[in-house]
From TrEMBL:
Signal sequence coordinates: none
Protein name per its UniProtKB record: Molybdopterin binding domain protein
Pfam families per UniProt: FLAD1_M, MoCF_biosynth
Gene3D superfamilies: MoaB/Mog-like domain (3.40.980.10)
Cross-referenced InterPro entries: CinA, FLAD1_M, MoaB/Mog-like_dom_sf, MoaB/Mog_dom
Lineage: Archaea, Methanobacteriati, Methanobacteriota, Stenosarchaea group, Halobacteria
Domain MoaB/Mog: 4-172
Length: 246
């Protein structure tokens, strides 16, 4: 399974907000054997969102879109996704009930504050989509065709993803090895391992830990194990972190 991630928000592009959502989603998907083929950050621009979602929905098995999905002026993620699939926006019984329930809980928690919320606007999703509601946030997410729309607030994103996590699965597996050999010394071995066993091998220097981390990835368990075993024999490597003693 190949998935693309689109994170929406001017604040991501200006550096005002660190894009932790992309990192968290990529790790979650990778643990499930899914290949994350693209990670793209784009502004709060409805036409841009529509174009990119349309493109990635056609090219990949699924696309996960995170961003503002509420009713403030810059929250145009949901509308952009609706445009990508030529859908109108409308509330459903489920989303209306969810928003009203969440509002009641907020008003009970903060009784001295007035909340002027357009419930129908907050509860609107692309027509024909599958709503994703949680107790973490006010506005619902949704699934429309193969696009999963989720909030940009990290806690709300995580809660929403958990409702559909079982829908993401793949056959990619990885093993990590560690070596103190300089990268230049192990390039031939890494290339040979990739050619011999049809695996991908990444080398990631960790200067703080004073070693190189090798990530071996494959879609076949035997190929993965064989490649790891070959590297352990042909490179000064270990399955546990090591440090230079020089």
């Amino acid at each position: 399974m190949e998935v693309a991630l689109i994170t929406v928000g001017d604040e991501l592009l200006s550096g005002d907000t660190v894009n932790t959502n992309a990192n968290w989603l990529a790790a979650e998907l990778s643990e499930r054997g899914v290949a994350v083929a693209r990670i793209l950050s784009i502004p709060d621009d409805r036409a841009e969102i529509a174009a990119r979602v349309r493109e990635y929905a056609a090219d990949f098995d699924a696309v996960i879109v995170t961003g503002g999905i509420g009713s403030t002026p810059d929250d145009v993620t949901m509308e952009g996704v609706a445009d990508a699939f030529d859908r109108e926006m409308a509330p459903t019984e489920l989303t209306l009930e969810s928003v009203e329930r969440r509002l009641a809980a907020i008003r009970e928690r903060v009784p001295d504050r007035e909340f002027d919320v357009d419930v129908a606007a907050e509860a609107s999703v692309p027509e024909g989509s599958r709503p994703l509601v949680t107790e973490a946030g006010l506005a619902p997410g949704c699934v429309v065709e193969n696009a999963y729309v989720m909030p940009g607030i990290p806690d709300e994103l995580k809660a929403t993803f958990e409702t559909v996590a079982d829908e993401f699965a793949g056959d990619r597996r990885s093993r990590f090895l560690y070596t103190v050999e300089p990268e230049s010394n192990i390039i031939p071995a890494l290339k040979e391992a990739m050619d011999r066993f049809d695996v991908a091998v990444g080398c990631y220097p960790d200067r703080e830990a004073d070693h190189n981390r090798l990530k071996v990835t494959a879609t076949d368990d035997d190929a993965l194990d064989d490649a790891a075993a070959w590297l352990l024999e042909n490179v000064d490597a270990s399955e546990t972190p090591v440090s230079r003693d020089w």
